[in-house]
Design brief:
139 residues; eight-stranded mixed sheet; Cytidine Deaminase, domain 2; 3 helices
Length: 139
């Protein structure tokens, strides 16, 4: 299970819409099941069908997580024109252990959809995503 606050959900959706028609990507960090920080990273592939993150941005995000006492819990990316499911390409690239893969789909007419998957031994199993409604606070 992942608990994602509405501001973090909104940050992922905003990044996905801004990147469309290309895939957006990033990392989620937190403590336990609760995600407290979203990192929006550059899709180095600049592709509508797959992504890879710039290593220097990944390292900076991990350094920031460690300094804040957070753990990288999820890798997220968007599907600009396809459902929120693990594609064959997603499965091929799901090699990071002990993380959840979060997909933000912009394909559905009723609005963005977020689903999460744990991948073990080449099998994707859906993980519950709970959106915790919170007001976005302006800095």
């Amino acid at each position: 299970m992942l608990i994602i606050s509405s501001p973090i959900r909104n940050e992922m959706i905003h990044a996905a819409r801004a990147a469309a028609p290309l895939e957006a990507c990033g990392l989620l960090a937190g403590t336990g099941d609760r995600m407290t920080k979203c990192y929006v990273l550059t899709n180095a592939d600049a592709s509508p069908e797959h992504f890879s993150m710039k290593p220097e941005e990944q390292f900076a995000a991990i350094k920031d997580m460690r300094a804040a006492g957070l753990k990288m819990t999820a890798i997220w990316h968007s599907h600009p024109a396809s459902p929120a499911r693990m594609s064959a390409e997603d499965m091929r690239l799901a090699y990071t252990p002990d993380v959840v893969y979060v997909i933000v789909s912009l394909a559905e007419p009723e609005g963005p959809r977020i689903r999460a998957f744990a991948v073990e031994d080449g099998v994707a199993r859906e993980t519950s995503v709970i959106i915790e409604e919170k007001e976005d606070h302006l800095p």
